Amino acid sequence: MTTHHDPTTRTAALRTVQQAKEQRRVIAGTVIGTSIEWYDFFLYASAAGLVFGKLFFGPLGPQASVIVSFMSVGLSFLFRPLGAFVAGHLGDKWGRKRVLMVTLVGMGASTTLIGVLPTYASIGAAAPILLILLRLVQGVSAGGEWGGAALMAVEHAPVDRRGIYGSAPQIGVPLGLLMASGMLTLMTTIAPGDAFMQWGWRVPFLLSVVLIAVGYWIRHGVEESPVFNQIAELKDERKAPIGVLFRKHGVLVIFAALIFAGNNAAGYMTTGGFIQSYATDPEGPLAFERGPVLLAVTGSAVTWLIFTLVAGWVSDRMGRRNSYILGWILLFVGVVALFPLVKSGSIGMLFLGLVVLTVGLGFTYGQQSATYTELFPASVRFSGVSISYAIGAIVGGAFAPTIAQALLNATGSTQSIGIYLSIMVILGMVATLLLRDRTGIPLGHGSEEEQSRSPLVFVKSNAQ
Questions:
Q1: How would residue 1 be classed by pLDDT, with cut points 50, 70 and 90?
Q2: Could you tell me which residues come within 8 angstroms of residue 210 by beta carbon, excluding any fewer than 6 positions away?
Q3: Could you tell me which of 342, 375, 394 has the C-alpha nearest to residue 443?
Q4: What is the pLDDT of residues 18-27, one digit of tens each?
Q5: What is the pLDDT of residues 87-136, one digit of tens each?
Q6: Are 71 and 60 in contact (CB under 8 A)?
């Protein structure tokens, strides 16, 4: 009869405690690391709508400077696939953890340098050129960040809790937006008016160096993914994982990318700075003060975070596919309601419009880490997850603020923006409907044959 003194029982109990402790450390590492990364990324996007148009692109004129400023936000997305390709290749060969350390430092260094960059008035055309170059470094870093964080969270998770564990890197996005908007809001109070344009906007960028040091220290203590450790022990790392990915799973990458594109286009109305710019434009129909608008965006980041967590939890109970379908319906309602509420002329209604939008945003984002991880075989998973995410970001969010501004300039109405966002949401829904649910599929390297069966509904479910 086994007693509590049995060494086997004690060893098993100790192992369980250690696993739980490591899982908590992984969650902390992914949440804090991705939050810092996206703080840096969204800080630029918010500043593009509020500051960069005047300080770096001012000579182009009031309308063109805003469009070019938003284009500099979008340009970084074109370099996210480069980061995804490099990080995916190295992540499948060398491990998830090493890549995450590099992306964190790359993002932090470029953000801090933006904080000390001279403006056009000081150094002329060199200022916008350097600004764009630093934004491109941010794009490369962001392209490699998300895939590694998603895999670390989901591959460490218990099989029945992948959705909620996978929501950890997802909430890094609303947390990053919350921190970025919150810091800018704080600085508009500390340094109002001209002081904000002269030096106040720089402080949040300079703060990044402290955040990166904290993030690096936390991530350094996290163990490598157990799935990658298994691959490394068997010495079965792919020599060319990207080639294998596109040869065997290329169509799957496209459909996975379209899922994210539908979410990303709507999300970049705030994370890309369009709503902030539209609502605070002194020549526009609203002309709100900068502070209240930033406060509304900050508040909506809280609701986005909550619904992202809820979506991850719900997906563990009703499946990834069903939770996505629910999310697309909610997001469609959100994009249809957004601009009528924003244009009401009230800060309270603007906030309500953003909150309604974040319900659908959260419900089409919280389950994404688990969904993507379950779509791809272990040996090419980092490449598949990262590249799908990066392509989806280009198709969806890269130029969403620029497209929105161009539609507004061309039509004089926000209705055309609502139609554009609705089309993107429908594309995401269609892509979701064309994929089988893979909730709970084994993730280990020993199940590659099962993982390699196509999740596409129009392909027979046999090995690709």
A1: very low
A2: none
A3: 375
A4: 667 777 778 8
A5: 877 777 777 777 888 888 888 889 899 999 999 999 998 999 999 999 88
A6: no
Quote the pTM value: 0.82
Report the alpha-carbon distance of residue 312 to residue 167 in Å, rounded.
5
Closest alpha carbon to 361 in 409, 428, 450, 290: 428
Q: Which two tokens stand for residue 441?
A: 């599929």
Position 41: which residue type?
A: F
The answer to whether 114 touches 137, Cβ cutoff 8 Å, is no
User: Is the CB of residue 403 less than 8 Å from the CB of residue 268?
Assistant: no
Q: What is the DSSP string of 117-149?
A: ---HHHHTTHHHHHHHHHHHHHHHHHHHHHHHH
d(CA 25, CA 20): 9
Tell me how crowded residue 461 is: count the other CB atoms within 10 A of its CB.
Answer: 10
Residue type at 93 in one-letter notation: K
Residue 445 tokens read as 């390297």
Higher-confidence residue of 462 and 178: namely 178
How many Å apart are CA 326 and CA 364, to the nearest integer?
8
State the Cα–Cα distance between residues 81 and 84, nearest whole angstrom.
Answer: 5
Reading the block at residue 273, the tokens are: 């700075």
Task: Return the H-helix or E-strand segment holding 42.
Answer: helix 7-47
First to last CA, the chain: 49
Residues 235-284: pLDDT tens digits? 555 566 788 899 999 999 999 999 999 999 998 888 767 888 889 988 88
**Three-state DSSP class for 429?**
helix
Q: Are 246 and 253 in contact (CB under 8 A)?
A: yes
Q: Which residues contact 447 (CB under 8 A, 6 or more apart)?
A: 378, 441
User: Which stretch of DSSP H or E encloses residue 255?
Assistant: helix 241-271
